[in-house]
Amino acid sequence: MNTEMDSKVTEAEWEIMRVVWAQNKVTSKEIIEVLQQKKDWKPATTKTFIGRLVHKGMLETETEGRKYIYSAKVKEADIIRSSLNELFANICSRDVGNTIAYLLSNATLSFKDIDKLEKILERKKKDAVEEVPCNCVPGQCKCHEHEGSNCNSGCHSVSDTGQVSINEQ
Amino acid sequence: MNTEMDSKVTEAEWEIMRVVWAQNKVTSKEIIEVLQQKKDWKPATTKTFIGRLVHKGMLETETEGRKYIYSAKVKEADIIRSSLNELFANICSRDVGNTIAYLLSNATLSFKDIDKLEKILERKKKDAVEEVPCNCVPGQCKCHEHEGSNCNSGCHSVSDTGQVSINEQ
DNA sequence: AATTAATGATTACAAATGTAAACTTAAACC
DNA sequence: GGTTTAAGTTTACATTTGTAATCATTAATT
Fold first, then answer.
1. Tell me, what's the ipTM?
2. Which of A17, A95, A160, B162 is the most exposed place for a label (fewest CB within 10 A)?
3. Is the CB of B39 under 7 A from strand C?
């Protein structure tokens, strides 16, 4: 069993995880049923993914009679966050605002959501900057064209292994 | 050459694309240099990815002498959006607000960004809902537990092929 | 008890992805 | 003009991912 706590699942495995997260404790039978419906997967297919997830240490098993009860070893929020972080690592930090704007524009939100987001934005004003420093490697974004004007602070400094614009809390 | 305009690149290919987007027109030599720096890729590796992207129709070539000048066939925003859509397809629509909240909290934003986001939020109030309808398949999220209380409208309705919470404009 | 069915484990296999060397050809240089 | 070199093409190969059948074992049924 892989204990590398790197929280990374594939698209197919994510489907399995969602069922487990929704149920807390499930049998393979239940998972199989849900995904037979949604994805038209054969039981064998679902079993394969369950097995891989157990192997990866993302699912925990508890023996109940002759079968297993599965439960999640990682939190859904962690998977969501690490996936977002990976995606945002491909985006220039200067473009993050626009990207979030896109998400916001296209989301269905509740009043409560909007309220919460407004509060966050309000708080954000405290550490807002005049120009977000670009975090791209030279050659990978346009910020490097108008050098000097804005891209001086963060530019050219962050390598592949470095932090991206979105960091874990 | 694959003309399926599905705008989907792998992680490695995305690195190539970023160089092309940054430059508009580039030679393989330039791409190779940037990624030798950033990813420590051998020239052959970068060449493979360039080749695949041309094949996929994401890169366009224009012959200059006996070499190529590469340019992007797809817009960066399109790739970002389709990637986000894919990721958000794994998240219950009721959780989208929180997910955006996470992004917002962890982003570095400029005053201008905040301004823009506030305006979007303001506009969002018009079509805000009391409770965001869950779009999960039964068995894939907790909304289905407290049935009747909130999860009645959108629930149980969206299949795998259906629209997700975030749609293309 | 013998048979059937369910469940987990093993094996399979193609396509996608990451990583790169080898080959080919035409251009640049001596 | 012959040789080195750069660029694109082809081939290679391991790993990951998606998709599933088969096998083994235990539990349930007749």
1. 0.87
2. B162
3. yes
